[in-house]
Every structure is written in structure tokens, then in C-alpha cells.
């Protein structure tokens, strides 16, 4: 598959050798305009066809307290889908590493600093929560609904094709999921492994076709957020459901995992969950 660095990432740290910072520096965050990647899907900035968030977990968060003693935590960030910008993942990691040798008077100061810097980069309010590494909220859970991965199908197409999406006449309300989602980083080509959940009310989806479609992302190069938006738009166009939620939970890389979800207005994802593979 052809590989090139998108124009929006020419100066990004992703795919480049980087010195890890020892000092806090909000300037390390590298924002990327969402509009360029949404345009090919027919998504206009002022009229999004979905609601949603990009939920991030950072497992390598540490800082020094006022006396120089290290504190460690796991962070959950929620970046709204209607923010003009997303934040490139390696720059986010480098930024967080700048906290490692920085003193903060309290955890509240850490949260306030993160909220301020991330909002400036994304041009929207970003939710920030910090958890202890043994916090019960981080215990892995399972995706709800029926897994479609055991279907005995033959595959010879590893690029996304909405032609695989077919529906019947019966209107149903159901939740399906697959752990066979894989896409590739658009810059480094590294594999991004994930699980995807589809919850909808509308004409019944053909499960063989849905699985073929999802597996079609296996050689697709794009960011996690854009893959989820691509899936959402294709399902809306081909299946025309009354309600739809698409949620992907990607395996962590570099201490960060990204779990975007997009939905028709009024839909919400299941309560916060983290899978064992994350």
C-alpha cells in the first residue's frame, strides 16, 4: 500500500526520532484540523451528522509533589467530536512526559493544567480525570451485545467497501461487536488493533456483510477517529438506521489508547469501559 506523510503532519513528531522532554512544555502538543479528513466523507464542520467524543486513557502519567516525591496516575481525557482539532498522539505523549520532573502543589493543579493546555490545543473544553493505578474504575470489562467474529466467511478484500453492507426488511434494535478491527497509522504504517461496537435501530444488518466490511479496514491507513467516522457515515448511508452508535476501543500504543465514538443525537455509549486488551 502506498505510504506518504499527509500535509497536515509534515511537522508532527509522529514517525520522527524525538528527545523525551524533562520539563513541562505545553508547546509540545501538536493539533491537527479535523476538517481536512472529514471533507472526503462529506462532513461539514458547521453541520456534523453525529455527536461523540474521543476518549483517551494515558497509563504513563506522573509528576512530582511539592516536596519532590513522584506521584503516578492513569488519566482519562474526553475530547469532543465537535472540537475543530484533534491532537496528534505522539505529541500528547511527549507533552505528558514533561510532567515527570515538574512539581505541582496538588492533583487539582495537575488537572487544571491539563484542562487548560488541551483545551487550547483542541479549541474546545477537554474533560480530564485522574485515577489511582489500582482504581476499580479501571478494571477491564466486556463489550455488550453479540460478537460476530465466529462467522465462517471467506475474505479477499482488505480495503473498506460499503458495498458489503446489506440490510433486510425486518426492523430490529440490536448491539453487535467485533474484535477484528485493524487499521494502520497514516504516518508510520504501524498496526492499530481494536474492537468495534455497532448499536442501532433500523433494518437488520447482514452480519456476514458487516464483518467483511469491518475487516476491510485491515490495510486502511487513517487515524482512529477518522476510521470511526468513516464506519458511521457508511452505515448511515447504506443501512439508514433510525438510531446508530459506533464505538471503537483501540489497543494502547506508547502508553495511550484512543476510543472514539460517534452517534446520532440522543445516543450515548455504554458506561465507561476498558477492555482487557487495552
UniProtKB/TrEMBL annotation:
Belongs to the GTP cyclohydrolase I family. QueF type 2 subfamily. GO terms for molecular function: preQ1 synthase activity. SUPFAM superfamilies: Tetrahydrobiopterin biosynthesis enzymes-like. The active site is at residues 185, 192. Substrate binds at residues 87-89, 224-225. Homodimer. Catalyzes the NADPH-dependent reduction of 7-cyano-7-deazaguanine (preQ0) to 7-aminomethyl-7-deazaguanine (preQ1). Gene3D superfamilies: 3.30.1130.10. It comes from Halomonas nitroreducens. This is NADPH-dependent 7-cyano-7-deazaguanine reductase. Residues 20-130 form the NADPH-dependent 7-cyano-7-deazaguanine reductase N-terminal domain. Its EC number is 1.7.1.13. NCBIfam families: QueF. The keyword ATP-binding does not apply. NADPH binds at residues 89-90, 253-254. Pathway: tRNA modification; tRNA-queuosine biosynthesis. Keywords: Cytoplasm, NADP, Oxidoreductase, Queuosine biosynthesis. It is found in: Cytoplasm. Pfam families: QueF, QueF_N. One of its GO terms (biological process) is tRNA queuosine(34) biosynthetic process. The keyword Cytoplasm applies. Its main location: cytoplasm. One of its GO terms (cellular component) is cytoplasm. It catalyses: 7-aminomethyl-7-carbaguanine + 2 NADP(+) = 7-cyano-7-carbaguanine + 2 NADPH + 3 H(+). It comes from the Bacteria.
Amino acid at each position: 500500500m502506498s505510504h506518504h506523510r499527509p500535509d497536515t503532519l509534515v511537522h508532527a513528531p509522529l514517525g520522527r526520532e524525538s528527545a523525551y522532554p524533562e520539563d513541562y512544555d505545553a508547546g509540545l502538543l501538536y493539533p491537527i484540523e479535523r476538517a481536512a479528513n472529514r471533507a472526503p466523507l462529506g462532513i461539514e464542520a458547521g453541520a456534523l451528522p453525529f455527536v461523540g467524543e474521543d476518549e483517551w486513557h494515558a497509563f504513563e502519567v506522573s509528576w512530582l509533589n511539592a516536596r519532590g516525591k513522584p506521584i503516578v496516575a492513569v488519566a482519562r481525557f474526553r475530547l469532543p467530536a465537535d472540537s475543530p482539532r484533534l491532537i496528534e498522539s505522539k505529541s500528547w505523549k511527549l507533552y505528558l512526559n514533561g510532567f515527570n520532573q515538574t512539581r505541582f502543589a496538588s492533583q487539582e493543579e495537575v488537572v487544571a493544567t491539563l484542562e487548560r493546555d488541551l483545551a487550547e490545543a483542541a479549541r474546545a473544553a477537554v474533560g480530564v480525570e485522574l485515577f489511582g493505578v489500582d482504581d476499580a474504575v479501571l478494571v477491564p470489562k466486556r463489550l455488550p451485545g453479540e460478537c460476530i467474529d465466529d462467522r465462517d466467511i471467506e475474505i479477499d478484500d482488505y480495503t473498506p467497501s460499503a458495498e458489503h453492507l446489506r440490510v433486510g426488511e425486518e426492523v430490529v434494535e440490536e448491539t453487535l461487536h467485533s474484535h477484528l478491527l485493524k487499521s494502520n497509522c497514516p504516518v508510520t504504517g504501524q498496526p492499530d488493533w481494536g474492537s468495534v461496537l455497532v448499536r442501532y435501530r433500523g433494518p437488520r444488518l447482514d452480519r456476514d456483510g458487516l464483518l467483511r466490511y469491518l475487516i476491510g479496514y485491515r490495510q486502511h491507513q487513517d487515524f482512529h477517529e477518522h476510521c470511526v467516522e468513516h464506519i458511521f457515515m457508511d452505515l448511515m448511508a447504506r443501512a439508514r438506521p433510525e438510531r446508530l452508535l459506533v464505538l471503537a476501543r483501540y489497543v494502547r500504543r506508547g502508553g495511550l489508547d484512543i476510543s472514539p465514538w460517534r452517534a446520532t443525537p440522543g445516543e450515548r455509549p455504554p458506561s465507561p469501559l476498558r477492555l482487557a486488551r487495552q
